[in-house]
Amino acid sequence: MAAADAVRAGRLRRALDSDLFYSFRRSPLTVVAAVVVLVIGLAALLAPWIAPTDPFDPSSLDLMDGKTPPLKPNEFTGHTFLLGTDDQGRDVFSAILYGARISLLVGFASVVVSMAIGIALGLLAGYRGGWVDSVIMRVADVQLTFPDLLVALMIFGIARGALPIAAQEHMAIPVLILSIGIAKWPQYARTVRGVTMVERGKDYVQAARVVGLPAGKIMRRHILPNVLGPVLVIATLGLSLAIITEATLSFLGVGVPPTSPSLGTLLRIGQEYIASGEWWILFFPAIALVAIALSVNLLGDWLRDALNPRLR
C-alpha cells in the first residue's frame, strides 16, 4: 500500500511539474475557460438535483407563470424565478441546465464518432498509400467542398427518412450524433494521414515490419500514439463547432425533439418572443451557448500552443 501511494504521489508530482501544467497555470484566461467549462459541465450533469423544477414535465408547469421576468414575482402566482420563465411557464434556468446536457452530449459523442472514423481512415490512407490513399482522400476532398452544416443536414434527413415514423423521435439524438460525426471526419483523417506518412518511414516502424508484425498492430501500437497529440487539439476545437452545429440544426427545427430540447431549441423558442419584450427567453440560453463555445475554443487554442514544440 505504501509503495502504491508513493507511485501515485510521484505521478501526481510529475504531472504538476510538467510543461503542460506550467503553461496552463501561467495563462489566466485558460484557467477561467477551464473553470467555466467545468462549472457548466457539472451543472448540466447534476441538472436533476440542481434545477428547481423539471421544465419538461408537464405536471410541474403552471401556465399562469408564463413570461415571468427574471427576479420579479409573478403578478398572478407570486412565484419568483432566477432567469424568468418562457411562454409555457417553464423555468429558464432549469431549461438551460437540461438543454446544456443534450448539447454537451451531442457535442462530445459526435466528436468521438468523428475521431473514430477519421483516425481509422487516416491511418489506413497514410500507411497503405497507393489507390487506398487516393480513394479516401478524394472522398474527404469532395466532402470538404460542402459546408459541414449542409452535410449534417443531408445525412440527418436521409437517416430520419429511413427510420419508421414511430422510431424517429426516439432515434433523433443518435441520428443527430451520427450526422454531425460523419460531417466532420475529414479534418481528422487529413491530419492523421499526414502524421502517419511521416512516421511510417522511421526506423521503429521499419523494425516492426522486419520482425513480422502485421500492419494493423503496427498502426495501432506504434503509429497511433504519435498521432493522438494533433488529434486531441482538433477534437478540443471541434467540440465547440459540434455544439454550435447541433444548436444550429435544432434552431432550424431538425435537431433534437421538442420533448428533449437543447440550447438550440431554446434559442428557436426565444427568438419568437424577442420582439414582444420577453428578452430573457432568448438572452440567457444564448449566453450559455456562447460561454460553452468560447471557453472550449480558448482551451483548444491553449492546447494547440502548449503542444507545439516551436513555441516552447
UniProtKB/TrEMBL annotation:
Pfam families: BPD_transp_1 (PF00528), OppC_N (PF12911)
GO aspect biological process, one term: transmembrane transport
Domain of life where this protein originates: Bacteria
Location (main, coarse): membrane
Topological category with respect to the lipid bilayer: Multi-pass membrane protein
Subcellular location: Cell membrane
Xref: PROSITE patterns: ABC_TM1 (PS50928)
Bilayer-crossing regions: 29-51, 102-127, 227-252, 279-303
InterPro entries, per database record: BP-dependent_transpt_permease (IPR050366), MetI-like (IPR000515), MetI-like_sf (IPR035906), OppC_N (IPR025966)
Protein's name according to its UniProt entry: ABC transporter permease
Annotated organism of origin: Prosthecodimorpha hirschii
